[in-house]
Amino acid sequence: MVSEIDRRRSAWAHAAGGLVVGVRDGGGHRTGHAPGARSTPGPLPPKLAEPPEGRPVRVMRRSGGRGARATGPLPRPVPRRPRRPRHHRGEPMITVLPVETPGLGDRTYLAHDGATALVVDPQRDYDRVTALAGAAGVRITHVFETHIHNDYVTGGLALAREVGARYLVSADDEVSYERTPVRDGDVVEVGAMRVRAIHTPGHTHTHLSFALEAGGEQVAVFTGGSLLYGTTGRPDLLGPDHTDTLARAQWRSAHRLAEELPDSTAVYPTHGFGSFCSATPAAGPSSTIGEEKRTNAALTADEEGYVERLLAGLDAYPAYYAHMGPANSAGPDGPDLSAPSAADPAELRRRIEAGEWVVDLRDRTAFAAGHLAGSLNFGLDGRFVTHLGWLIPWGTPVTLLGETAEDVAEAQREMVRIGIDRPAAMATGGPGDWAGGEPLAAYRRAAFGDLRAVLDEGADDGEDVVVLDVRRDREREEAHIPGSVHIPLHEVLGRLGEIPAGRVWVHCAGGYRAGIAAALLHARGRDVVAVDDGFDSARALGLCSPAPEAPAGPEAPAPASPDNRQETSA
């Protein structure tokens, strides 16, 4: 059996968005394993030996030898457990543990006093939270929502019902379920903790932050989509009629928090770690009220200056956001994470021909080299669910193709977070298994140097060259390739007729979005080349038009989008 200390550490790693890998044999894994662990006997497969940026890996083993062999190729150590807020002798020890959801750029929080716990803004797959609470040996008695979320389906109601906790939601939110209503100034006792609700409109009209006090000391504030690290939540998700009002409310809310809370108060936002609910990308992994006073634009600029820059920096956000608010107001059930039915090659072909989406989860390199004709590529190595949810016509059945059942389960878990509740079917193995003897489809991958060569010649093997830029508007404004066609990825399906005839060389900032676009176009019969290269290479090769001079000082425009940052670091 897995030791208790390993269970605790691995539950934390799993909840924090890490990969928990068991390297014992299958029998040992079945006998007992840590929450969230996947069985991978022997050497780590290549995709785990080089895990995605920012995802820790914890290797479970029965003895040190096999674990040492498995961990040898890992490029990064596992992060230490989160620090506990300081305390004084005789006062309760308060621990705040984040539960990371890197694919959506959000955090859930579990805070406890050693016996009693509260949860703030839980994701749909709340089993990560209950595993963390179990590892800590604490009982969840209260679940708090800072707001009706627009970027994911909440697990708050289902979690509260499962563990018998009170579910606290703003009294001013119109919801279809019973909850404990809370208003500005309400104080809730949770074990040794006292939680005060603070009305902080801006991201939504009814948004609440929750200030946590213990032993007479203000320990933390859970700010949801209000005060983020170096920025704030975006104010435009409720529509243009509300945007200006909410932007100004956001500025006032940030100032209220800064005025009412001590500088030492730890700030714990839900958004801002790549989420499109952030007005601009957040900065840093942690912060305090004092640090935000020094660095956050909402607290260093006057109201007019803040609002002007905030609105100027807003860019597109995923289309699936339109479905999240209504789902959360209705009261979503817990997720069904049981495996979907397996599809054979004939069923896969039938689903493709019926216009359903058959999604290959492998990385873009493997997909380009050979794939089931008509399938699409949303690799698990990037922001899989954000782009899938953004592009898919809502309600279209999705079948998942993964090398392993664990890959399919990972994708399914991400999908339920945005309300794609059940895959239509699944298949595992490789493209040869899925094609049933039919020829595989493939297309070229290239670098910007290859694109430079064909542009200099004016043709590609006699074909006209079309350069398609699928980055978003703000990225395009910074620099672009003259003569390229610009269609942001999320608009490609609706603007296929605008792509000229010829061989389409599609690029983005780092390769992931270009791979998605190339697969979409290739499935529709276009001759494509996926440029799998960083855009800095295009600049270095002289392919770009000169970037405009950025204004100096505090009026500089907002930085590039979180999606671009994720791509270029991958």
Give your account of this protein's structure.
With 570 residues, the chain is of the alpha/beta class. It contains 21 helices and 23 strands. The protein has a six-stranded mixed β-sheet. A five-stranded mixed β-sheet has the order 10-11-12-13-14, with no helix packed on it. It has a five-stranded parallel β-sheet with strand order 19-23-22-20-21, with helices on both faces. The two termini are 36 Å apart.
Keywords, separated by commas or semicolons:
disordered C terminus; alpha/beta; disordered N terminus; 570 residues; 21 helices
Number of discrete helical segments: 21
Give the radius of gyration.
24 Å
The structural class is: alpha/beta
Strand content bin: 15-25%
CA(first)-CA(last) distance: 36 Å
Chart the SSEs and their pairings.
Layout: H1 4-15, E1 19-22, H2 26-31, E2 38-39, H3 46-49, E3 57-60, H4 64-71, E4 95-101, E5 106-112, E6 116-120, H5 127-136, E7 139-144, H6 156-163, E8 166-170, E9 180-182, E10 187-190, E11 193-199, E12 208-214, E13 217-224, H7 240-260, E14 266-269, H8 289-295, H9 297-300, H10 303-312, H11 321-330, H12 345-353, E15 357-360, H13 364-369, E16 376-377, H14 384-391, E17 398-402, H15 405-416, E18 425-428, H16 431-435, E19 444-446, H17 448-457, E20 465-469, H18 473-478, E21 485-486, E22 503-507, H19 512-523, E23 528-531, H20 535-540, H21 562-569
Parallel strand pairs: 1-2, 1-3, 6-7, 7-8, 8-9, 13-14, 15-16, 15-17, 17-18, 19-23, 20-21, 20-22, 22-23
Antiparallel strand pairs: 4-5, 5-6, 10-11, 11-12, 12-13
Helix pairs in contact: 1-5, 7-10
